[in-house]
Amino acid sequence: MSLTLRINLVLTALLLVLLLAGSLLMRQNLQNRIDHKLEAVSETALSMISSIVTNPDIQDTAKRQLILQVSALTGTRLLYIEYYAADSRFTFRASGSNVSQSHTAPDWFHRLLVPDGQPHYEQLIPGERDSRIQLGPDPSLSIDEVWRDTVPLLYLGLGAIPLCYLLVYLIVRYAMTPARAMRAALGRIEDGDFSIRLPRLGFPELAGLSGAINHVAESLAQAAELEKRLAGEAVRAQERERQHLARELHDELGQSISAIKAMAVSSGAANPQMTQIAALCDHLYDVVNGMLRRLRPVTLEELGLVLALQQTVDDWNEKQDTTFCALSIRGDLSALADEAAIHVYRIVQEGLTNISRHAAASEASITLQRAPDAAGFTLDICDNGRGMALEAGTQRFGLRGIRERIDVLGGELEMTSPPGGGFAIHCRIPLALPSHKEKHHDE
């Protein structure tokens, strides 16, 4: 449940309580008002009406008219007057509401304000058996007056309630603006954008919270930068170790194999075992050469990146039975730095390994070209295989190694896998390497 909804519910409950309390208070005030008026006018009204009905010189019709006039007086309009002749015979009833029949208050308003069991007053008429005058409250006119006074307040209240809700909404929305900013900042931090910084917020509590978020973002940015530097060092150390291992294989193992073959050949062709040893030396020499090409691509050093990639793709296609990879190189690649070239070569190797192990594809393509804005290069490795879940795929060692190499180059990496299948790696490589990486490259 949102904070705005909670505040609106609390406000609604508060308004209902105030409305109920106001209604009860208004009802009580009206009843007290009626009672006070009744006490003030009842005795006077009884005295006047008693004088009328006991006067033998006044005819019954005239008595009725006089009683009606008495009931229409301002002070007695809250009373109903009932006249009972001899033997409790009901004669007529007069009240202020008979004078004006145009009641404006609805019935529910009458029932709300007039309780049952209102007191009444009675005056016996001497000389006539069971003859009496009975007075009781008839607040219809006063209720109409109250209703006419209340209607504008009701309309005002009905108009004020939406305005009150609107005001609360605007206040809460304004108060929650810093919270929305912090939520957006945390979302960007979650997505890996550690450059976000929140301004100092107006409220002291939120100002401290924004400062804490900024501190977390700064710490994560420093940690991410350190991770990139360490990854770059690891990649360079890996390349140095590969070069060292390639030299050891070439100098030690390669020469040893050559010596063994020379000894086997010099022992004479008549010895079949020597012939087998020489053939085995040739096989081992081919295996070592393959390992040397993977560890230290001599073609890359001697002939350049384009021919090295062509040879790598051709060798890969020869080993595949169901998958063919097409290589496309467009534009001038001479501006690509040597360190970037070795990383591009390794990325292509990792991409081909990923396709052969996981893709189950029939077609693949590798495209290396100058970026349209001439600010760098783009490398795309695509296949039509079964694809993979990006969340799980990016954790594979090969793909993680590709990301580390792109980070070393200061480039951008995007991996896509549409629902219909297939997987694509899109790399953007800048012309200039980051300064701290160039330092290690010079070394």
Description:
This protein has 13 helices and nine strands. The chain is of the alpha+beta class and 443 residues long. Among the domains are: 3-165, no CATH class; 304-443, 2-Layer Sandwich (Heat Shock Protein 90), CATH 3.30.565. It has a five-stranded mixed beta sheet with strand order 5-6-7-9-8, with helices on one face. Strands 2-1-4-3 form a four-stranded antiparallel beta sheet. Strand 5 (324-330), helix 10 and strand 6 form a beta-alpha-beta unit. The two termini are 60 Å apart.
Class inferred from helices and paired strands: alpha+beta
CA-based gyration radius: 51 Å
Contiguous runs where pLDDT drops below 50 for at least 5 residues: 436-443
- On the 0 to 100 scale, the average pLDDT is 78
Shape estimate: rod-shaped
According to DSSP, the number of beta strands is 9
Distance between the termini: 60 Å
**Approximately how much beta-strand content do the residues carry?**
5-15%
SSE order, one letter for each helix or strand: HHEEHHEEHHHHHEHEEHHEEH
Q: Percent range for helical residues?
A: 55-70%
Biggest sheet architecture: 5 strands, mixed
Strand arrangement, major sheet:
5-6-7-9-8
**What is the helix tally?**
13
